Amino acid sequence: MTQAITGKSIRKPSPPWTSADVRTDFPILTSTDRPVAYLDNAATSQKPDAVIAATARYYKSMNANIHRGVYRLSVEATEAYESARAKIAAFIGAPHPREVIFTRGCTEAINLVAMTWGLQNLKAGSTIVLTQMEHHSNIVPWQMVAARTGARIVVTPVSPQGELDLAAYERLVADGAALVAVTHISNVLGTINPVAELAQIAHRHGALILLDGAQSVAHMPVNIAELGCDFFAFSGHKMCGPTGIGALWARGDLLDAMPPYQGGGDMISTVSFEGSTWNIVPHKFEAGTPDIAGAIGLSAAVDYLSRLEMARIAAVEADLLASAEKALRTIPGLRIIGEARQKASVISFLLDGIHPHDIGTILDQEHVAVRTGHHCCQPLMDYYHIPATARASLAFYNTPADIDALVSGLHRVIEVFR
Ligand code: PMP
User: Fold this and answer.
1) Of 2, 281, 345, 379, which residue is least crowded by CB atoms under 10 Å?
2) Ligand 1: which atom is nearest the Cα of residue 376?
3) Nearest CA among 326, 328, 415, 329 for reference residue 366
4) What is the pTM of this model?
5) Does the beta carbon of 106 sit less than 6 angstroms from any atom of ligand 1?
6) Structural domains of the chain in order of their starting residue, each with its CATH number
7) What is the Cα–Cα distance from 28 to 32, expressed in whole angstroms?
8) 186 CA to middle of ligand 1, Å?
């Protein structure tokens, strides 16, 4: 038994634990009035009791603004917020907590880099290398910066299986790229990109590399130092934490040199009408009152995931993925989009002659929650010449029963539409 931030003792399931062992930690999954096979984990994960309780405990017993008060509550809230930063830094293998900047999520983390490092360092003729499989949040901020600086965007192609063309990538980077921005795991294809290799190639040619870790931090062990990236962006809500909180990790020397992102309280050292000076990192990038409860909830999520161990989570999800893909391949007319050799637990698929939205609607009637649409990856849909896919994305708390529900739901879809 270990003592959690919630103050409540939390069961550490004995290894090797199964999905069924941990599912009961998630109240929404065990609710009997609204049973659901929740298969939209790439959009957001469910929250364990420990995270819900930690957030509530902050509001019930510690609520005060941080960094400003000399009184006990404020000091406690500040300590909890800053220890959340340290915990998150350790979880991703960051060399120092000050290199972790709290943001609203992955999207804001990427925008922060684009609007600070990007506007400061990119100029007419600079090249930003993206990939065909990027989420809109790792495309649009760069387009906005490109429009303001005259930088150009080039795109690494993918193969029909959903793997990056590494030779083409190297050619694009070698052509004088300033920055590479690439997703660690594709939210549509499930492809786990060889990001350590991408980072080495980027650095060999003098480019920096930003990794979009939205889909990786919750599904595999992530160690920034081993990946060798310069920026790493992720969201708390996809890793069992609350919505509205996420983080940017960046190399300390880059953060020191970057201008502030937003102006306001806490990010300054001095203010006068003649001009202002900036606080030290990380505070320089955290203007205004942050999501204190969110950071504390995310810290509890990190505790929770760490107790389960990320390597075990990855192994459990790999088994689930293999059995889900095997079962889906028995369904007539079903085509999986994304068959990379290194794949995380995301399965995009099409059913011959049936629109993905119809698939999603009928599955919902069968109490199966999947995502349908372009998944914020329109350029990837264009590459496959499709408007949308249905997507089942698994987490460690999904059980074989959830996969059975998906498969029988899809048979129902076929009955209705064929
Ligand atoms: N990148 C990827 C690969 C994603 O899957 C997502 C969320 N779907 C994001 C970025 C954006 O994350 P958020 O909306 O939490 O900022």
Assistant:
1) 2
2) 8
3) 415
4) 0.97
5) yes
6) 60-306 (3.40.640.10), 309-417 (3.90.1150.10)
7) 9
8) 10
